[in-house]
Specification:
Order of helices and strands: EEHEEEEHE
Distance between the termini: 36 Å
Number of helices: 2
Radius of gyration: 15 Å
Oligomer: single chain
Shape: elongated
Strand content: 35-45%
Length: 116
Amino acid sequence: MECKIKNDIGTIYISEDVMLKVVGYAALECYGIVAMSSKRAKDGLVEWLGRENLSRGVQVRMVDEQLDVDLFIVVEYGISVAEVCKTIVEQVRYKLESMTGVKVRSVNISVEGIRV
C-alpha cells in the first residue's frame, strides 16, 4: 500500500515502508517507551524489537484518504501507561501529518509488556 497525494503540480507517492519508519521513530522518541513489539499471529508469541526493526511493531491502513495507525509497544515500569500512550498518539499524529502531509484518522496503541 502506498499513499498518493495529489496537488496542482502533480502527484506524490509515499511508500508504506516510509510511513512505518516515520511512525516507529516518532514513537521511540517519546519518554517511557522501551521498545516496539511484534506479535506473531501463528503462535501468539511476542518478540521485542530494538531500533533496527521499527516497522515491525507498526501497522498502517488507508481509510477514506486518511491513515489508521496501530502500534505494539513495551513501556517502562513505574511510568503512567496512560500518559505514555497519550504522548505517543500526539507525537505520531504530528510527525506523520507534518512530514508526509497525510491526515491521521486514528492511532491505536496496544501495550504488549512492561520492562524494568
